[in-house]
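Quick one:
INPUT:
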């Protein structure tokens, strides 16, 4: 799942975990703590995305389904992840679409406010770009759909691919 910070990626995955046994959540914020701490440069983001993709591939190899909740702001990173994981229909790019304004409203940590004040540099959506997917396998509009509607769209998509 890709989208702006606070778009709802992690919230959707947590909801999916209620109905999908053994679903591993690879959350970008949590993984960053021990994979790529504090490096939000372009090169750092590229490296972090590759590490998460390799982890997802390893889990899949061992039969563990995973949902990756990662901003992954660059098109090239998401295409790289698709190639690294190399799992055909078992890989799906899900764009969690939400306006910058709505994401800022949802931001309980105050990250957007800090970024606007210049306290956080290279923050996606403020002073670092977010490249929305051009060919997402699934688009979830969390600005207009409820959590249950969003999770149900993901489950319907997975059922359509015979993954659920």
């Amino acid at each position: 799942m890709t989208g702006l910070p606070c778009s709802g990626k992690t919230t959707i995955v947590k909801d999916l975990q209620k109905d999908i046994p053994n679903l591993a959540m690879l959350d970008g914020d949590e993984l960053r703590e021990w994979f790529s701490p504090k490096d939000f440069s372009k090169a750092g983001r590229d490296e972090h995305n590759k590490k998460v993709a390799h982890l997802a591939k390893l889990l899949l190899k061992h039969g563990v389904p995973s949902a990756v909740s990662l901003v992954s702001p660059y098109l090239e990173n998401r295409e790289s992840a698709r190639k690294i994981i190399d799992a055909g229909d078992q890989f799906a790019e899900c764009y969690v679409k939400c306006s910058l304004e709505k994401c800022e409203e949802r931001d309980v940590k105050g990250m957007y406010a800090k970024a606007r004040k210049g306290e956080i540099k290279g923050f996606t959506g403020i002073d670092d770009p977010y490249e929305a997917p051009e060919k997402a396998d699934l688009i979830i509009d969390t600005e207009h759909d409820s959590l249950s509607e969003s999770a149900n769209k993901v489950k319907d998509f997975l059922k359509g691919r015979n993954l659920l």
